[in-house]
Amino acid sequence: MAEIAEGGGGGHKGGKKRAKKLSTRIDMTPMVDLAFLLLTFFVLTATFSKPKSMELTFPAPPPPDQKPDEIKKGITLLLTKDDRIFYYEGEFRAEPNEKGPKTELQELNFSQDSKNSLHKYLLEKNKPMHEQIMALKAKHDSNQLPDSTFKRLVKERKADKESYTFLIKTDDQATYKNVIDVIDELNVNVVGKYVMVDIMKTELDLVNEKTGTASN
Q1: Where are the domains of the chain?
Q2: What is the distance of C-alpha 65 from the center of its chain?
């Protein structure tokens, strides 16, 4: 608050009336109080940066004396250097046997427009589930499904035994960025089942053949 304080007397000198001297003093106390109130408000209402994380699924290792179960309708993605992605479908076969020929790797890429695009491949493979979940989402958005029912039905669709399971494997030359990009694409295409597992020596040998890298 501003105050006007009178200072200095008037009086007459030589028959002339002198004007009184005025001084102003600004009280800063209310302004300081307001500043602290605003500071407290912004501190209490501010949203602090939260660490970002991504949920990954790792299968439990089988007992030493138990052979791992074969994953039905499995697709394995192999990530390596230079942003390259290779894949094969079904069981891996280092040599041809009664179940089928030797495994051959096919290549995908991160381009959205390429015919070998990872996005297009996942969309094609996951098309039935994608359409079902999008239909559920449309009902949810139009208030035909409550939240709890929508989440339960989506979870059931993703856990369907007929849907594909994607196995993500990397060698020591793959980048974290590529791993995150692959997981993003899986989530965009509402893939329900994917895991990260270690790459096998026989798989690594095939990747090295494709990339022209000498095997250790």
Answers
A1: 2-8+20-44, 74-126+164-211
A2: 37
Residues facing residue 17 across a β-bridge: 12
Distance in angstroms (rounded) separating the CA atoms of residues 130 and 112: 18
CA–CA dist 208, 89 (Å, integer): 19
What phi and psi, each to the nearest 5 degrees, are found at residue 106? -110, 160
Asked if 27 contacts 4 with a C-beta cutoff of 8 angstroms, the reply is no
Q: Are 176 and 79 in contact (CB under 8 A)?
A: no
User: Which helix (H) or strand (E) is 196 found in, with range?
Assistant: strand 193-196
Q: For residues 111, 115, 118 and 120, what is the CA-based torsion angle, rounded to 10 degrees?
A: 110
Do residues 57 and 51 make contact, with C-beta atoms less than 8 angstroms apart? no
A 10 A CB-CB count for 203 gives 20
d(CA 36, CA 45): 14
User: How far apart are alpha carbons 91 and 76 in whole angstroms?
Assistant: 9
Question: pLDDT tens, position by position, for the chain (216 residues)?
Answer: 555 455 555 555 555 666 666 666 777 788 888 888 888 888 888 766 665 555 555 555 556 665 555 566 889 999 999 999 999 999 898 888 888 889 999 999 998 888 899 999 998 988 888 888 889 989 999 999 899 998 888 888 887 777 888 999 999 999 999 999 999 999 888 888 888 899 999 999 999 998 887 655
- The structural architecture, per CATH, of the domain 74-126+164-211 is 2-Layer Sandwich (3.30)
Contacts of 72 (CB under 8 A, 6+ apart): 161, 165
